[in-house]
Amino acid sequence: GKICWSRSLFLNIMKETCLPDVQVDENSENPHWKAIGYSVEEWQRDPAEAPAPSRPLDNGVVETRALNDTTLLRSLADRGLPVKPGAQHTVECDAVIVGSGCGGGVAAAILASAGYKVVVVEKGDYFAADDYSSVEGPSMERLFEKGGIFCTSNVTTMVFTGSTVGGGSAVNWSACIRTPGEVLQEWSHDHGLPLFATKAYVQAMNTVCDRLGVTDECLKEGFQNKVLRRGCEALGLPVDAVPRNSSAGHYCGSCNFGCPTGDKRGTDTTWLVDAVKHGAVILTGCKAERFILHNNSGKDGRSKKCVGLLATCMSNGITKKLRIEAKVSISACGALMTPPLLRNSGLKNRHIGRNLHLHPVSMAWGYFPENKQAVPITGKSYEGGIITSMHRVTPRTIIETPALGPGAFAAMVPWESGRDMKERMSRFARTAHAFALVRDRGSGFVDCEGRLRFTPSRDDTRELRNGLRHVLRILVAAGAAEVGTHRSDGLRLRCKGVRDEDLEAFLDEVTIEKGPMHSTADKWAVFSSAHQMGSCRMGSSPKDSAVDGSGESWEAEGLYVCDGSLLPTAVGVNPMITIQSVAYCLSKGIAESMTNAQKHY
Ligand SMILES: Cc1cc2nc3c(=O)[nH]c(=O)nc-3n(C[C@H](O)[C@H](O)[C@H](O)COP(=O)(O)OP(=O)(O)OC[C@H]3O[C@@H](n4cnc5c(N)ncnc54)[C@H](O)[C@@H]3O)c2cc1C
Ligand SMILES: *[C@@H]1O[C@H](CO)[C@@H](O)[C@H](O)[C@H]1NC(C)=O
Ligand SMILES: *[C@@H]1O[C@H](CO)[C@@H](O)[C@H](O)[C@H]1NC(C)=O
Ligand SMILES: *[C@@H]1O[C@H](CO)[C@@H](O)[C@H](O)[C@H]1NC(C)=O
Ligand SMILES: *[C@@H]1O[C@H](CO)[C@@H](O)[C@H](O)[C@H]1NC(C)=O
Ligand SMILES: CC(=O)N[C@H]1CO[C@H](CO)[C@@H](O)[C@@H]1O
């Protein structure tokens, strides 16, 4: 049958199949999980062991959700932000930043360290290591935008994006890959952005990796990565080690739901800590509504000047809007939210919201019964570092492994019958997944908040199919008993005694369908994406870009973008290091221009 993948459907499937009411009994055991061989270590503080330890950002964070007008005023004043009386709560600072993710976290650290008073506005809440639960259900709701799922308007792509202090960085899969050399060359040469050819950019990547403690040492690789490595080796294909920012011995497997041990370093445990140390204030549960633009005398052809922003706190006790006046305003709310924020503020540049890239992904699975391989591959699908190995198929396609909890697993499995579902769930712990990820050339649009359009180009679809066929070959070569895709008709192959021509015939059947809205057939598959980029790209002219090479809006002086939406194209690898390195360079530039402006007066 056909299903519209919606959040409520997804959550329903999660709940009905394996997370009944997303509840866990007192010993934090879910009977359904036991049946499927799933157990996660819960990292909960013993309540008897009071008091609660202080959290890394306590000195700078103002959690507005718990406040009312009176207590907000006091908290702001305590943090060095006296409120001026009036119809709005008005505060003044040097730089206001929207979003505390990859881009926003870095910008906050750089500007605060340069001696400027920084205010970060974050609509998510603050969770420290102690609050993270490894339990999939509650974490999805709390940490992700709309509980994890963002559908494109015609529902062919599930888009995942983080929404919490730390943004995507707190939930990411810890793969730390530098911007590839060819991409840097393309950006500097074809997009007129000299930054990407400079030593300064390479140094920024070094600094970012140092700050995150990136290492490619991995003492104990997890089951899925061992499968990927084994399969590639059997086929004579090269495998690269993927550097992570967690320590070499780190093996918890739940980093994607917010790392409960605090070992993995998102911006919430790195850059934002630096920012707070230098006096930055982070307002959580606070949503930026629009930037405040005044008419400008026309400096550099910019007809507007940005003087700050208006934000709404999501607490019933806070009745007035917050007006944050600043010399410099920075949008760092990610490639899906920056374009609507700029549009709501009145910016008109036609590139705002275009050129959205998603790194579409297509996944396959292989079942490895315990001790049935000639040389056993030990472990469980949900344990270990998430991405420690990768294989490059073509210049545009890579293969990596995902982190799937039982809920996400159940939601992806094509529905054949209750019996089939039960069998698949019982194999969960020994089912390895791997995906092909494509550097998409085709691009989409962000229309308004929560609405996007995206269709991979024909070319991208071809790359995805080729990548998916490679994934299946690798799983077979690693010794899987059975392999398959997530296509709605349950395309799968039993591998025992399978001959080369059988495998080739099976692979010929692999297709990447266009999705339920376009396909009249019963067969379709869903792409997913966790990497959003490019929707406010930087460039050398307002004719072909949304902001200039320093991240400043072509229309409004003092308004900058500093997140994944800046990237001129898809980057082709996990984008976090690239986004942070770009943010590092641009915010250094912003700090410099602020210092120069001061000298003028
Ligand atoms: C599950 C998952 C796994 C990933 N794994 C990896 C990985 O292993 N390696 C890698 O390199 N990349 C990974 N990524 C991608 C990476 O995390 C993102 O590309 C990156 O975080 C994007 O950075 P950003 O600064 O553009 O936005 P984000 O980091 O998403 O930050 C945006 C922030 O802005 C906030 N915000 C949005 N709108 C508003 C508003 N109006 N007012 C106030 N606040 C607002 C959001 O709540 C969010 O916190 C992963 C992403 C996901 C979702
Ligand atoms: C705000 O909260 C404080 C502390 O919780 C409380 O004492 C005060 O009465 C509240 N003020 C208003 C106006 O609700
Ligand atoms: C993603 O995880 C890595 C590795 O744990 C970490 O270093 C990085 O900070 C995280 N991402 C971001 C954007 O911070
Ligand atoms: C700004 O300029 C526009 C037209 O250029 C004008 O309509 C508007 O009234 C001006 N606003 C202010 C506050 O001066
Ligand atoms: C999605 O919608 C867009 C425009 O609404 C359309 O151009 C595109 O072909 C659609 N793609 C799919 C796969 O339905
Ligand atoms: C090489 C490197 O910097 N490794 C660091 C990785 O992160 C851990 C902590 O998360 C550090 O202890 C390592 O030194």
Automatic annotation (TrEMBL):
Q: What compartments host this protein? A: Membrane
Q: Which residues form a coiled coil?
A: none
Q: Which residues form the Glucose-methanol-choline oxidoreductase C-terminal domain?
A: 451-583
- This protein's UniProt keywords: FAD, Flavoprotein, Membrane, Oxidoreductase, Transmembrane, Transmembrane helix
Query: Entry's Gene3D superfamilies?
Result: FAD/NAD(P)-binding domain (3.50.50.60)
Is the keyword Nucleotidyltransferase assigned to this protein?
Answer: no
Q: Name one Pfam family in it.
A: GMC_oxred_N
Recorded superkingdom: Eukaryota
Annotated residues that bind FAD are located at: 93-108
Q: Does the keyword Nucleotide-binding apply?
A: no
Catalysed reactions, as listed in the record: a long-chain primary fatty alcohol + O2 = a long-chain fatty aldehyde + H2O2
Q: Which residues form the Glucose-methanol-choline oxidoreductase N-terminal domain?
A: 140-361
Question: What are its GO cellular component terms?
Answer: membrane
Give GO terms: molecular function aspect only: flavin adenine dinucleotide binding; long-chain-alcohol oxidase activity
Which residues carry out catalysis?
Answer: 531 (proton acceptor)
Q: What is its EC number?
A: 1.1.3.20
Question: Briefly, what is this protein's role?
Answer: Long-chain fatty alcohol oxidase involved in the omega-oxidation pathway of lipid degradation.
Q: Which family does it belong to?
A: Belongs to the GMC oxidoreductase family.
Under which name does UniProt file this protein? Long-chain-alcohol oxidase
